[in-house]
Specification:
The protein is α+β, with helices and mostly antiparallel strands. It is built from 11 helices and 24 strands. It has a 6-stranded antiparallel β-barrel. A 6-stranded mixed beta sheet has the order 6-4-7-8-9-11, with helices on both faces.
Length: 532
């Protein structure tokens, strides 16, 4: 039996008592009309993971552990748990999680996947006990501990017939050297001297045999949540595994023992597969740890304290990763610090930008009905927020975030010049924090991309030819250092190029004036006093 998961590094190993649930997630970009497409990007497909079954049979220790989460005094034949993973999306997308984690359900338990939001919601249906996993490190490494030559021979044909060996073949140099040094007939025939027809051309050479130590280390933070008592227990697990491989390199294709040699040794693919396979942690081990610590369980409350702890732990890990990562991230443009990547939990990725130190603006079609969204700032730190206001007609949403950031400065004034250079910052096709440039083509009204033509008032847009693609949705359009619009949709590229649209700054500021207490800025700018 196999269980596919496209959304995390987590695998669940279900015993034969377990119920298999397909936790497959798929998303599609939203469509405005056949000729207009919004620019939210669906999730790329992550590797498919699987699970293995285990034979039944409970010893007394396992039965005692099972009773911890069972409502049945007879070891709970209907025991259920909820599972969720909250591994940093930044870590996953940056490739810092090399392999998945496998939860081996070695007890007769039914497992079902739940979102963190539902787990923390006391009104949501689901099992009493939930297991939340945060993989903070999953690193694979290899080391070549020995390399030595192994003697063998190559057969190049028979004297009197055409002979050739590619210069890149491992035996080419050996054959050439022996040809120059040997006085026997076979070596002489290799350089074209006369020899009896049919003599075999055989040369000695060496291929290399390497001993490679492959190692995998993983750190996992777990949270076991009692959804009835509203308590949780936090634990950390460090798991390590290593294996030795023997791989051969430089076996000549003219070696008559080539296939036999290859069959006796490992391959690079074997090492790659080992490094990508999951590391297991047993449910019984998790329950034993919980049993030892449950008297120290912390109060869950509304779950906000737990969310803050998750965020703090993640950012601590990200700060360490970033401190040891060398890239070309420019630091000379403060506009990038105002932009965030927005993850909604359904696999989509959009853009957003700070409009106040703790409020981010993005498109409605990026967040839709998600109450919580996760975000990543330009410095790699993560945060989360709650949607506090939205307008489907304007395709605008405001999100109050936990981590403060640098707000943008909006352009104000009655007029903007056509042909002026503008720049869009966002995450086109998941190329995060990219900047593109174009000019203002027009300022025009158009019906909402989320509603049929004629439904509601038209929206004022800035038309630009700055490249805008899936992933740019919700990102800022800059005129110099000031925002004049929010990138929202573009004409289908198969129909026309360079027809992209951003919600006009006046629409955005009027929305904020209505939905943000204390925010009151006129899009037209400060009024000028009349001359006397």
């Amino acid at each position: 039996m196999r269980l596919s998961l496209f959304v995390s590094p987590l695998i669940f190993g279900l015993g034969i008592f377990g119920v298999l649930c397909g936790f497959l997630v798929s998303t599609k970009p939203s469509m405005a009309t056949s000729a207009q497409t919004t620019v939210a990007q669906a999730s790329p497909e992550l590797p498919t993971h699987s699970i293995a079954t285990k034979k039944p049979g409970l010893n007394p220790e396992q039965r005692r552990l099972l009773e911890l989460i069972s409502a049945d005094a007879n070891a709970g034949q209907n025991s259920r748990i909820a599972v969720a993973e909250v591994t940093s999306k930044t870590m996953l997308r940056m490739g810092h999680i090399d392999f998945p984690m496998s939860i081996e359900l070695d007890l007769p338990v039914q497992a079902e996947r739940m979102s963190l939001n539902d787990i923390l919601d006391p009104q949501a249906d689901g099992p009493r006990f939930a297991f939340v996993f945060d993989v903070t490190m999953a690193k694979a490494s290899r080391r070549v501990v020995n390399l030595k030559g192994e003697p063998s021979t190559v057969f190049l044909g028979y004297a009197g017939s055409p002979v050739s060996i590619a210069p890149s073949d491992p035996a080419a140099n050996a054959a050439s050297n022996q040809n120059l040094q040997s006085s026997n007939n076979m070596a002489q025939s290799y350089v074209g001297k006369s020899q009896a027809l049919g003599a075999p051309l055989i040369f000695a050479y060496e291929y290399n045999k390497a001993q490679i130590d492959a190692r995998r280390t993983m750190s996992v933070t777990t949270y076991v949540i009692d959804r009835v008592k509203r308590t949780y227990v936090k634990s950390n697990f460090d798991i390590e595994d290593q294996n030795r491989f023997e791989v051969v390199y430089g076996v000549s294709r003219h070696d008559p023992k080539r296939n036999n040699i290859s069959a006796q040794f490992d391959t690079e693919q074997d090492i790659d597969d080992y490094e990508k396979n999951s590391l297991d942690i047993r449910l019984s081990a998790l329950l034993k740890d919980y049993s030892n610590k449950r008297t120290t369980a912390r109060n869950l409350g509304t779950g906000m304290a737990l969310r803050k702890m998750l965020l703090k732990d993640r950012n601590t890990v990200l700060a360490d990763v970033n401190a040891n990562t060398f890239d070309d991230r420019p630091l000379n443009d403060p506009r990038f610090d105002t932009v965030v990547a927005v993850y909604t939990g359904d696999g989509s990725l959009g853009s957003g930008f700070y409009v106040t130190p703790n409020v981010v603006m993005t498109n409605w079609h990026v967040v839709k009905d998600h109450p919580f969204v996760e975000m990543k700032a330009y410095d790699g730190q993560e945060t989360y927020g709650t949607v506090l206001g939205k307008d489907v007609l304007l395709d605008v949403a405001l999100v109050r975030v936990e981590r403060r950031g640098r707000p943008v400065a909006f352009y104000t004034g009655k007029n903007i010049n056509l042909g002026a250079t503008v720049e869009a910052i966002g995450h086109p096709h998941r190329f995060e924090f990219s900047i593109t440039r174009g000019v203002i083509s027009a300022v025009r009204k158009h019906h909402s991309i989320n509603l049929p033509s004629g439904a509601g008032d038209k929206v004022l847009f800035i038309q630009t030819d700055a490249p805008v693609n899936p992933g740019n949705s919700g990102g800022p359009l800059f005129l110099g250092n000031r925002v004049i619009g929010m990138n929202t949709w573009g004409q289908n590229k198969s129909i026309a190029e360079g027809l992209n649209f951003s919600v006009h700054y006046s629409e955005l500021m009027n929305f904020m004036n209505a939905h943000l207490p204390g925010y009151a800025v006129s899009p037209a700018g400060p009024k000028k006093e009349a001359k006397r």
